[in-house]
Specification:
This protein has 14 helices and eleven strands. It has 314 residues and is an alpha/beta fold. The chain has an eight-stranded parallel beta barrel, surrounded by six helices. It has a three-stranded antiparallel β-sheet with strand order 7-11-10, covered by helices on one side. The protein binds flavin mononucleotide. Flavin mononucleotide binds next to β3, β9 and α9.
């Protein structure tokens, strides 16, 4: 049996990545109900909102689900406390040191996975005792590593370096890409962008429509001096580019970013002034679907491509 399916007790090794402003209980529970693993993205939630979201998710599915916790979040202690109190059994940590919380979470019987963008951190995760690793390539939506290592290159390198189960992320939006990730050594996939445009995602409809319109080349890794993030090119992105051309300081860039940009763009639908985080794979997303339809499509494509590859073998 697939080790990722076993680890989380799920039917398909498809994980919906935690995503600020997009992955609340509705999306997470829909993914879990469809046989994957849904994750609530706690990074955009105040502690009491997170508690409410977990409670709703528990009501909406009997299947396993988890919470993504970006470790740089200011209310981190409170978030961890709520996750434990609410009996959440799976936590995906990201954006921080895997050594800080892994032990504590595991002592409470929680399965811990950490997201990395390079081999060095993958090894650090393994040392910290995590149960699995997500290795995320440069193509991915959201905040990325500075190394710019693509998924195609990163997965085999991480696979070679570690012994614990590996989940691939970044640029996976089809069953074909899923098969490629498995061929490279991953046992599961974490998908973000493709789920942003599902009916159950809490992304604003304007943001969803702008993803459908996006073509190859319409995203760019930006704000490398602050925290690198892949942005859909819009007026806010152009302002970032202008400032960067002038060799702006970290402070100037922080001032431009200000507070609430991501909410403005992705949750409130301001396509001009908002920050729109999405992956390169947006160039291939062209319809709004239910989560169930997406997962069924991924599995059908995966099975077809595997069969065709066998037929075409040399
Ligand atoms: C809108 C958006 C928000 C995201 N927010 C988070 C987050 O809060 N925490 C995190 O660990 N990853 C975050 N990510 C990354 C996803 O969890 C996932 O790893 C990534 O999207 C995978 O690459 P893909 O977009 O090519 O599928 C975000 C991605 C997107 C598109």
């Amino acid at each position: 049996m697939n080790t990722i399916n076993q680890l989380f007790n799920i039917k398909y090794p498809i994980i919906q990545g935690g995503m600020i402003w997009c992955s609340g209980w509705k999306l997470a529970s829909a993914v879990s109900n469809a046989g994957g693993l849904g994750l609530i993205g706690s990074g955009s939630m105040y502690p009491e909102i997170l508690r409410e979201q977990i409670k709703k998710c528990k009501q909406a599915t009997n299947n396993p689900f988890g919470v993504n916790v970006p470790l740089l979040y200011p209310n981190i202690e409170e978030h961890i406390k709520i996750i434990i109190e609410e009996g959440v059994k799976i936590v995906f940590t990201s954006a921080g040191n895997p050594k800080t919380w892994t032990n504590h979470l595991k002592q409470h019987g929680i399965t811990v996975v950490h997201v990395v963008s390079n081999v060095k951190f993958a090894l650090k995760c393994q040392e910290a005792g995590v149960d699995a690793i997500v290795a995320e390539g440069f193509e991915a939506g959201g905040h990325n590593g500075k190394e710019e290592t693509t998924t195609l290159v990163l997965i085999p390198l991480v696979k070679k370096a570690i012994t614990i189960p590996l989940i691939a992320a970044g640029g996976i939006g089809s069953g074909n890409a899923m098969a490629a990730a498995f061929a490279l050594g991953a046992k599961g996939v974490q998908i973000g962008s493709r789920f942003v445009t599902t009916e159950e995602s809490s992304a604003h409809i304007n943001f969803k429509n702008s993803i459908l319109e996006a073509k190859e080349g319409d995203t760019q890794l930006s704000l490398k001096q602050l925290t690198p993030v892949r942005l859909l090119k819009n007026s806010f992105y152009e302002k970032v580019v202008e400032l960067e051309k002038k060799c702006a300081s970290v402070e100037e860039l922080s001032n431009l970013l200000g507070r609430g940009r991501a909410k403005k763009g992705m949750f409130e639908g301001d396509l001009i002034e908002g920050e729109l985080e999405i992956g390169q794979v947006s160039g291939g997303i062209n319809k709004i679907q239910t989560v169930k339809a997406v997962i069924e499509e991924l599995i059908t494509e995966y099975n077809e491509v595997i069969k065709n590859m066998e037929n075409n073998y040399l």
